[in-house]
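Aim 2 progress. For Fucose permease, the working sequence is reproduced below.
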Amino acid sequence: MIVLIVAQVVGTVGVGVAPSIGVLMAGEVTQNEAWAGLARTASTLGAALLGLPLGNLAARFGRRAALTTGWWIAAAGSAVLVVAAQRSQAVPMFVGLLLIGAGSAVSLQSRFAATDLAEPRHKARSLALIVWVGTVGSVLGPNLGVPGQVVGDRVGLNVYAGAFLIAAVFLALAGLVVVAWLRPDPLLVLRGEAATAQVPVSQAHAPDGARRPGRIRVVLAELRVNPGARLALVAILTAQVVMVSIMTMTPVHMVHQGGSIAVVGLTISLHVLGMYALSPVVGHLVDRPGARAAVLVGVAVLLVSLVIGAVRAHDTGWIVVSLVLLGVGWSFVNVAGSALFAAVVSDRTRASSQGGVDALANLCGATAAFAAGPLLALAGFSMLSLCAIAVLVPLTVLALRSASSFVSGPGRREGSGS
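Predicted structure tokens for this construct:
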């Protein structure tokens, strides 16, 4: 847990640069709203494309191999972005943003790694702790513009290139922390404990990535018969779509309203603070009353946020409030869904299915962010918020219909997947 915490803090500093500095750089380099919209989704798309391979890597070789690889891929992407920002080159910018998405993928995987050896009644608390410590890095990341300017002045780089240079160093350090000190590997220890408990060889030792078609069929079959897994999946996807679509377009909307890079950075930082600061509280709520209660609280907070965004779209102060509440609502829904999924998924598909869920969430987020650009341009921020409200409806219906017997808290191993 200590190693995961340190790596998460250090790595998320580098990852946090993409939602603000990366978004603004995309608009300046491309000078085209359509291309800029694609660039804004590139890091999320990269997380989606790399999430499943990194999950499979964890399934075959353990968490240490997967997390190290992901952090170092992101560091390489950030280094590419230094060149792209300095030379205003669009293609390297797309490549760099795709690669830096690996940092988001392993940041998400780290929260599942925290549950590998956690006591059943404390799985949500352990997961929430890793999410919470990401606050430090994720709040600092969007504000790398100021130190980026200082570094850039000293080495001859512009503000964007300087910010991504700092990010590359932090991402590389995160990988170094994991490869040097994540010993023993928690997932491999979990498998060893399963073998000691005389779990069948097919579940205890067979690598998740050994037979890809069979693994996918097993995961899909489990979703069909496991109501807890279905609720968890819908919760994770809904939270990601709503949060990414609004958060990605907010810097653009604020700049159009005359906001500066400093104001944008502060707003995103407060939003990220909202995402992570209450994670321990959410974890406790999930471990006690249950995931269903936390999901419904999160939906209510998201609704308030989106109503504010729709009604007070041109008021900077209210937009900041809306973004903070957006982060808090995402925290409730995402932590509850992730903890529930970690509790109910079968051990034999654990790592790869977790990677698949994160990949799908990022893919949905990237799609939503890309669609949000034209919607913002055509209809404005208020309409974007109203569309996000509509996305909440299926999750709300599913959570209200769910029987408390299978969402009564991950610590009690609810669901047929247990």
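The first helix runs from residue 2 to 15. This observation will guide construct design in the next reporting period.
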